[in-house]
Design a protein that fits this description.
Layout (H helix, E strand, L loop, with lengths): L1 H32 L3 H4 L14 H9 L2 H32 L3 H13 L4 H14 L6 H26 L2 H9 L4 H30 L2 H6 L8 H5 L11 H27 L10
Helix pairs in contact: 1-12, 3-12, 4-7, 4-9, 5-7, 7-9, 8-9, 9-12
Length: about 280
């Protein structure tokens, strides 16, 4: 009993330490966003601003086109998430249901592709987009985001498809439904929580992505929000800390909200009551 209790206390302590480690950067970001320039330059920083101010937010919007950049990020992230899910869903169904060597090889390739660094793929992607004349365009950026999100989307959806009882599809086949009808009418509704979670993960990945957007987008009018945030850092590497923290805080809010939605979707139970034992 003592060993079990000590182990449980150790687990909770480790979890608490992990949560503190995750929360510290965000809490410090929020604190910095509401501090005055005088407090930001103080040699004795505090967690809670002594004189909270919204000047950093006003200055951030005055200095950089945050709304336009957020619109570009929103458009690219939404398009990438929708296209990735539309492409990944039928592919994941085939990979999960067809136990062939080709399907197993495709699943293995999906897992291996996650280990590729961004630097390794940016040059081939750049050359392809250059031939298609999609450099410096949101359409080209969306295409890159879809390609980058597909392996992860497939990996997630294959697991969800395998969790769907095969008896349901067999019953639909007995009633005369084909593969496409079964996927649309039987499997897809049961996959709804998984599809939503996959789409939201793809959206967050595209919303926070920086490297591809930095390389592919040249004109300021088409730059996304993560790229615009770097404009708060001067040529000598000195950051305008207050406005940067305010802008970064606003850019972080969509991700936090979406993660809250994902958590409820995942824990809701995908197949509760679908089949009786």
């Amino acid at each position: 009993m003592r060993t079990s209790t000590a182990g449980r206390v150790g687990q909770y302590a480790a979890l608490l330490g992990y949560l503190v480690l995750l929360a510290f950067p965000f809490l410090w970001l929020v604190s910095t966003a509401f501090k005055s320039p005088r407090e930001l330059g103080s040699p004795h920083p505090t967690w809670i601003p002594r004189h909270p101010t919204l000047d950093n937010f006003r200055q951030a919007f005055d200095e950089q086109p945050l709304l336009r950049a957020a619109g570009n990020s929103l458009l690219a992230a939404l398009a990438a998430a929708v296209i990735a899910v539309l492409v990944a869903t039928p592919l994941a169904y085939v990979m999960a249901r067809q136990r062939t060597r080709l399907a197993k090889a495709a699943t293995g390739w999906v897992v291996v592709s996650q280990a590729f660094p961004l630097v390794l793929v940016i040059i081939p992607l750049f050359l392809v987009l250059k031939e298609l004349r999609l450099i410096n365009s949101l359409a080209g950026l969306v295409m890159v985001y879809v390609v980058w999100a597909l392996p992860f989307a497939l990996w997630m959806l294959v697991g969800y498809v395998r969790a769907v009882p095969g008896e349901l599809e067999e019953a639909a086949a007995v009633d005369g439904a084909g593969r496409l009808r079964t996927l649309v009418s039987v499997t897809a509704p049961l996959l709804a929580p998984g599809i939503v979670a996959t789409a939201l993960f793809a959206f967050i990945t595209a919303w926070n992505e920086f490297f591809f957007a930095l390389v592919l987008l040249k004109t300021p009018e088409k730059q996304t929000l993560p790229v615009v945030l770097t404009h708060f850092i001067g040529a000598e590497g000195v950051a305008d800390l207050g406005p940067l923290a305010a802008a970064a805080f606003l850019a972080t809010l969509p991700s936090l909200i979406i993660f809250a939605i994902i958590q409820r979707r995942i824990t809701g139970g995908m197949l509760a009551g679908a089949v009786k034992s």
